[in-house]
Design a protein that fits this description.
Layout: E1 2-6, H1 28-37, E2 43-47, E3 57-59, H2 67-77, E4 83-87, H3 95-103, E5 111-116, E6 121-129, H4 134-142, H5 148-153, E7 158-161, H6 174-187
Parallel strand pairs: 1-2, 1-4, 2-3, 5-7
Antiparallel strand pairs: 4-6, 5-6
């Protein structure tokens, strides 16, 4: 299993590269990269063509703001392995929740993911995508359907209940990032 940190988004709502934000004394890209390295054979950061990183990376093959692009680009690099995918805008992800996901992985289904309890859908940006899902992802993209969530919803997957929904906290705006950092710093 390889790991992928989704960091290739355009960050239009944030106004700055979300992967470079520092929540844990290092960039979010680095932080998640190091966590995934504990569980994966190889780890890469998914970036868009306008970004740079010193970390091993995969450049997204299209400039469309969708996690599906990063996931497809990873499978194009290696379609024979499963990909453990985590988005850089989820600052509360830690080794405990990744361990839980890995320990509950079901490689007999197309993916293992968490049910987002607030919206009751499979959460596509913290998921293990098995290699057999690649054709379905490719087909969705070729049909101009750019939602990884929709592919998961229409596939045989293992849907886990997340031990605590705070892990799914998603930070997409400057205001939310400031609010989160202030709260996080007050707890430290």
């Amino acid at each position: 299993m390889n790991g992928l940190v989704l960091a290739g988004g355009l960050s239009t709502r944030m106004g700055t590269d979300k992967g470079l934000l520092v929540y844990h004394e290092k960039s979010q890209r680095e932080y998640l990269f190091e966590i995934l390295a504990q569980f994966c054979e190889e780890v890469f950061v998914s970036i868009n063509p306008n970004q740079q990183t010193e970390l091993p990376h995969i450049v997204d093959n299209a400039e469309i703001s969708s996690p599906l692009i990063g996931i497809l680009s990873a499978f194009e690099r290696n379609s024979a392995v499963a990909w453990l995918v985590v988005a850089c805008d989820m600052p509360l992800i830690d080794d405990k929740i990744i361990r839980f996901l890995v320990e509950n992985r079901n490689p007999k289904t197309l993916a293992t993911t968490f049910r987002n309890p607030e919206e009751n859908f499979p959460e596509p940006i913290i998921t293990i995508y098995e290699s057999d899902i690649y054709p379905k992802l490719k087909q969705a993209f070729s049909e101009n359907k750019k939602s990884a969530r929709r592919v998961l919803e229409n596939s045989e997957i293992t849907l886990l209940e997340i031990p605590d929904s705070f892990y799914l906290t998603n930070i997409n705006t400057e205001e939310k990032a400031k609010e989160f950092m202030q709260l996080h710093n007050n707890k430290s």
